[in-house]
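Incident log, support desk, overnight shift.

02:14 A customer reports that sequence design results differ from what the structure should imply. Their input is reproduced verbatim below. On-call engineer (initials T.W.) acknowledged and began investigating.
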């Protein structure tokens, strides 16, 4: 397979919209009162899912680029602290902006033709760039699906 075709496929996969909805569609027009509301016991809120995606994506990005990066403790370090009350516009917008900025950094790595995506990341000695990028895409797709389910349960989704 041509290297540029692989890169194009990975960009499309991270952006979504093929086998799953895009980040924008999944999170567009979430009512403020639905952001931190749990649809049932033991189900995360939309904001918790969003923050979890952001934290996990940031962890993998830093794992790729920073040899000194230490991942958070599993599982508590990958979820936000439980928040009572509502998530205000500033917190919501920051979560979305930080997620999108992290995704853009991953897209830069994918587009960087100096990086052999199938090579082992030098400081990891065991994982490839491709593995880590696919891990992010898979994880994000799963949690975007969770967000859609939560929105439906909260009557905050118009399909």
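02:41 Re-run completed on a clean worker. Output:
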């Amino acid at each position: 397979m041509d290297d540029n075709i692989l890169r194009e496929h990975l960009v499309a996969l991270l952006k979504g919209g093929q086998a799953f909805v895009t980040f924008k569609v999944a999170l567009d027009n979430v009512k403020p009162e639905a952001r931190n509301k749990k649809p049932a016991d033991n189900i995360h809120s939309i904001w918790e899912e969003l923050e979890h995606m952001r934290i996990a994506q940031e962890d993998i990005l830093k794992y790729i680029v920073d040899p000194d990066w230490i991942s958070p403790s599993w599982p508590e370090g990958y979820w936000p602290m439980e928040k009572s009350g509502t998530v205000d516009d500033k917190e919501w917008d920051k979560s979305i902006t930080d997620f999108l900025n992290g995704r853009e950094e991953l897209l830069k790595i994918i587009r960087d033709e100096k990086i052999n995506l199938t090579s082992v990341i030098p400081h990891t000695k065991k994982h490839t760039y491709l593995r880590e990028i696919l891990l992010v895409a898979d994880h994000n797709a799963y949690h975007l699906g969770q967000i859609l389910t939560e929105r439906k349960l909260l009557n905050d989704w118009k399909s």
